[in-house]
């Protein structure tokens, strides 16, 4: 199991031979939610090393089922083949932005007095 972090969100990745890490993802998500003191947080699940199909112990269907149970997006990627690497990053950014919009919805145009006040700050590192 490997964790990728991008500002306000994260991605959990499991490799083809990662049954143990696959099972650890449940614990990992609960730990993140506990630390963040939240019921939900922007995350995606990535099946890594998708080019090593002959070593696969976790099927794509099992990955999708886990993602459904965790209520996150599932993708398979291969850095070696450059398959879905950029798409996974863009999906994580999309999920983070959607989460931020729900947390800090845009407000109507502020009045001059309101412009001086500090509002909700959402930052992507």
Outline the structure in words.
42% of the residues lie in helices and 16% in strands. It has a single domain, classed as Rossmann fold (3-Layer(aba) Sandwich), CATH 3.40.50. The protein has four helices and four strands. Strands 1-2-3-4 form a four-stranded mixed beta sheet, with helices on both faces. The N terminus is likely disordered. 25% of the residues are buried. The protein is α/β, with parallel strands linked by helices. A hairpin with a 2-residue loop joins strand 1 and strand 2.
CATH architecture: 3-Layer(aba) Sandwich
- What is the CA–CA distance across the termini? 23 Å
CATH topology: Rossmann fold
Overall outline: flat
Order of helices and strands: EEHEHEHH
| Main sheet makeup | 4 strands, mixed
Q: Beta-strand percentage? A: 15-25%
Name of the CATH homologous superfamily: P-loop containing nucleotide triphosphate hydrolases
The number of strands is 4
Number of domain units: 1
Biggest sheet strand order reads 1-2-3-4
Total number of helices: 4
Average pLDDT over all residues: 78
Helix content: 40-55%
Radius of gyration: 17 Å
Contiguous runs where pLDDT drops below 50 for at least 5 residues = 1-7
- Assign the CATH class: Alpha Beta
